[in-house]
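Please discuss these two lines.
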Amino acid sequence: MLVDAKPLTAETFKQFGFVFEAPAAPGRSPPAAELRDVRKWATATLTVSLEEPATSPLRIARLERHPFSTQTFIPLDLSRYLIVVAPAREDGNPSTFESKAFIGAAQQGCSYSTGVWHAAFSVLDRRGSYAALIWRDGTDDDEVFFELPQPLTVTGI
């Protein structure tokens, strides 16, 4: 199954969460995303990753979701990045036929809404680093994985 990557914008991503960008002029932006966890005992955690760039064609064999927490990605030092998302079907599993792929720019971050199915964050073009914010309580409910019966192949990167 092919998924063609499109530019990441707040409008095209709003079904899955929020997109925020560095301000174009000095000053602070208005609130950019709603970050939360519905479990009162979960703790916000911040991780920083350094990744090698993904190569084309990129094949996605597994999706994940965080049923109780938003997950936010903040670029630190990268060129572009790829995110792949899928809405949930009525049975809760990902609707791979409705998968979307987006290419984010270095000055853009994104935040997945609670429970959104997504592939692992991938940097493009060169080695890159980013920070990720998510709430965890140490249980299996922190993240749920789904092995795809047929891998998604992302084009347009």
